[in-house]
């Protein structure tokens, strides 16, 4: 069963006539080569003939057998896989795309739906090169949709208080540098502080490699701490 709709009722506010659409198709570099050849011949042009045309025009060339004229206007005939139904999609010239998208997305009947619903509604009656990309761009740049959705904000977790009950239970670590080279060839300072007593320690180091820092901790009494808060980078794993 075929689904067909006159060009005159495709839009609600400013109905299009067949002559207007044909004129717009003939002025569009994407549809003009195909329409002119359809008006003058039923045979598909060779690739050599279509090669000099615009990239969009060349996109229509493989669908030559699915492109038909109705009242002098170029349509694409879409058929279901089982052949039980088909519909006629108007090949929309570029000059009419914005007007159509305002109708299918921005109007009262459009409802400012998302990309997939707007895409499905548009494909019911229309077809053009880069249809999906144009619909996605239109919906993404719609001011009304953007205002309704609001800004995307990431919820941050609240800071929590960590309580300690005894010395040597939890220790904070950080590293400072680079400093001027010392006589012992050290450039960095490993800073440690006990959470409970607030006792600080500073250990000089020649580099800030994880192995070097781990060895310093093992060789000192700080290895007895139960928990470490490391604040100087994810590459330090002890």
Number of helices: 9
Percent of residues in helices comes to 25-40%
**Class per helix and strand makeup:** alpha/beta
Euclidean distance between termini CA atoms: 71 Å
The succession of helices and strands, N to C, reads EHHHHEEEHHEHHEEEHE
Shape: elongated
Domain unit count:
2
The CATH architecture term of the largest domain is Orthogonal Bundle
CATH topology of the largest domain: Endonuclease III, domain 1
* pLDDT < 50 stretches: 1-6
Gyration radius from CA atoms, angstroms: 35 Å
Organism: Araneus ventricosus (Orbweaver spider)
Pfam families: Integrase_H2C2 (PF17921)
Protein name: Integrase zinc-binding domain-containing protein
InterPro entries: Gypsy_RT_Integrase-like (IPR052160), Integrase_H2C2 (IPR041588), RNaseH_sf (IPR036397)
Short synopsis of the structure:
The chain is built from nine helices and nine strands.
Task: Please give a structural write-up.
Helix content is 31%, strand content 19%. The protein is α/β, with parallel strands linked by helices and 238 residues long. The protein folds into 2 domains: 18-148, Orthogonal Bundle (Endonuclease III, domain 1), CATH 1.10.340; 170-232, Nucleotidyltransferase, domain 5 (2-Layer Sandwich). Strand 3 (73-79) and strand 4 (86-91) form a beta hairpin. It is elongated. InterPro entries: Gypsy_RT_Integrase-like, Integrase_H2C2, RNaseH_sf.
Please write out the topology.
Elements: E1 2-3, H1 18-27, H2 32-40, H3 47-50, H4 55-60, E2 67-70, E3 73-79, E4 86-91, H5 97-106, H6 115-123, E5 126-127, H7 131-140, H8 143-149, E6 170-176, E7 188-194, E8 200-205, H9 210-218, E9 227-230
Parallel strand pairs: 1-4, 4-5, 6-9
Antiparallel strand pairs: 2-3, 3-4, 6-7, 7-8
